[in-house]
């Protein structure tokens, strides 16, 4: 996959950066739509999204520097600021966004868990779209499968599209949970645990620096996220029963409609990915 999507004179548009921008815009529009339905302050939510985006990028970079290539950045500290060269960790991004979200919602008096429930489906939808532009491929395939991607003469796993499709499936699950919530914060907890499980599985197909044997920082962080989500599920279930975010109407056509839209989006993602990778 070409890292550069296109250029306008001195302006360079990177493929992954463009995909992140499209995913972010999609997530923002969906979150604002849900804020209207749930009578949350749209201006405060817009500012919150900006805050967690900035904190997410910062957290993603810090986590990558500290846990993936600390020796390199210790000797090349100036390269820490070269974000255009890549080097972001989604786990660090989630942690940074979560900490910033806790701070900002408390500052402006937004209900944290209700807001987190509202943002979670939008976030994973944005992640699914953004992942299509990633140029970090997986391990070499043990056999030649038709969906493999040839990189430097080797056929490798297209882990980007694996994650994009699983993220979209998680989005559909979270979207359906809005009318089935038992406590405030449940959708966010399912997002945290669900995404951690996705990343834990896919990490076996990725080529990341290891800590012990084949265990990577992402393995350990994903396991930690799963444990935290399990603990939050138990704690919030007792602490936050009652008010939830507004769910979808109880009708027979809503779920098939959402699935249909996501399937179309998934097909578009696949076509774009393979077009860029060819």
Quick take:
The chain has nine helices and four strands. The protein has helices at about 15-35, 40-65, 70-75, 90-110, 110-130, 160-175, 185-200, 215-240, 255-275; strands at about 5-10, 10-15, 150, 155.
Characterise the protein shown here.
The chain has 278 residues and is mainly alpha-helical. It has one domain (4-40, 111-277). It is 63% helix and 5% strand. The protein is built from nine helices and four strands. It has helices at residues 15-37, 42-67, 70-75, 90-108, 112-130, 159-177, 186-202, 217-239, 254-277; strands spanning 4-8, 11-14, 149-151, 154-156. It has a two-stranded antiparallel ribbon with strand order 1-2. A two-stranded antiparallel ribbon has the order 3-4. Strand 3 and strand 4 (154-156) form a beta hairpin. Helix 1 runs antiparallel to helix 5 (112-130) and helix 5 (112-130) runs antiparallel to helix 6 (159-177). The longest helix is centred in the first third of the chain and has 26 residues, at 42-67. The chain is globular. The N and C termini lie close together (7 Å). The model is unreliable at 248-254 (pLDDT under 50).
